[in-house]
From TrEMBL, chains A, B:
Keywords: DNA-binding
Name of the protein in its database record: AcrR family transcriptional regulator
UniProt source species: Neorhizobium huautlense
Residue ranges of DNA binding: 35-54
HTH tetR-type domain mapped to chain residues: 12-72
Pfam families tied to this protein: TetR_C_7, TetR_N
Length: 219, 219
DNA sequence: CGGAATAGGTACCGTACGGTACGGTTCTTC
DNA sequence: GAAGAACCGTACCGTACGGTACCTATTCCG
């Protein structure tokens, strides 16, 4: 994981470094390990600066989410002309990327944090995570699906429904299992392949798009 | 919600009452609201008894999970002879039950609790929830799917894969969204219907099992 | 050069939690 | 009916956190 990639727009380099350290602490030890004193010690800054920059602990958590998301960028290829093979490839790449993002240390830690808070803060962090965290990946998938329809390769009434179908086929209950502490898949690529196969059977227009059943060795 | 249904095997009535109160506190205010002092006050018992019965706070949490699971029973109809309509009905009922269970107050609260702890306790609670919490519902689905195959109505290579496909089609990312604080679906039945349609297209043997596309008004 | 802003270090405060100890009360059991 | 266990209520302890205050060091800028 690159520690100090492109600087964020909203934070000074010093603040970014502190936020990166905060994420490290959170990933290592969960929200109990992310104390203001501990962060100040680990990041060589003062608690007073933390409160000046972020207001209070909740502000810090929100800043961490915003900071992490500023580091996520996805390529958008929705403009391309799609062949059926290209669509399948792009869908599989999307599915694999999705699985990898969801299985990432930082993503899991932030989701755990927001879920833990959601029962008492009116799910402010949860909203943040849903609205800003998934926007990029949602937009990418949405673009891909719409492009597939425009190219006559996919058929569906509601793009939302189709996207959620794809998401369900790719992820199933894996995200929750990982949030609960279970290890991820051994082979994301195989899972992505199977999910896209099923998705194309459901929503593809190419009638021979269903492949032979796989050896099914993913889980 | 029936407060005091069948008594558990592992807990005395008094302990069950305390655990029920603990669940109520947890649902109301999240894990911050579930303090030993608060529980003792709310349940009219002494902290000393809590520690005598459950060892420590983690023991109490584990007992809450175990207690809640002892109240969940599912009907098992896997012995029946299945027609295609009966299979579809049973699958839809299963899907609807699954959505309702996942959206339940107590289920969400316990999952949030276990997820919050999973980053620091080696996911002991998470394992508990996964291994014991889903066993019943998993067994029911597994039985249904296997019965469908025996009756020649479903085809698949791996029952696990098929089950996860069904699960993904039914739930998609809804569980995580609800854990993050979002409201559930407006119409679980419509979602169940759509998911089972898709599942039967993928794994049914009856070639005309795919129905006309629905009006898609679930979400 | 000098003052103001910025930020690090540390000490401190109030609070609330998990866990323990103890005296009094009810319930069982012989 | 008495001995004893189970249990309630409460008070208590140590700890650790969030948040604040104060003081110093560095940097920036006129």
């Amino acid at each position: 994981m690159p520690a100090d990639t492109a600087a964020s727009a909203k934070f000074t380099p010093r603040q970014s470094a502190v936020l990166a350290e905060a994420l490290r602490l959170l990933v290592e030890g969960g929200d109990k390990a992310l104390t203001t004193s501990g962060l100040a010690r680990a990041a060589n800054c003062s608690k007073e600066s933390l409160y000046k920059w972020f207001g209070d602990r909740d502000g810090l958590l929100a800043a961490m989410i915003s900071f992490q998301q500023s580091k996520v960028r996805t390529a958008d290829r929705s403009g391309e002309r799609l062949s059926v093979e290209a669509l399948r490839d792009h869908l599989e790449i999307f599915a694999r990327d999705l699985l990898e993002v969801l299985a990432g240390d930082v993503s899991l830690a932030l989701n755990r944090l927001a879920i833990g808070q959601s029962s008492r803060d009116g799910s402010k962090l949860g909203k943040l995570l849903l609205e800003h965290g998934r926007r990029e990946i949602d937009r990418r998938a949405r673009g891909l699906i719409e492009a597939g329809k425009r190219s006559g390769l996919l058929r569906f009434n509601d793009a939302d429904d189709a996207y959620h179908t794809l998401y369900g086929l790719v992820v199933s209950d894996l995200h929750v299992r990982m949030l609960l502490g279970e290890l991820g898949l051994k082979d994301n690529t195989a899972q992505a392949h199977k999910a896209v196969d099923a998705f194309l059977i459901l929503h593809g227009t190419n009638k021979d798009s269903g492949e032979a059943p796989r050896a099914s060795a993913a889980r």
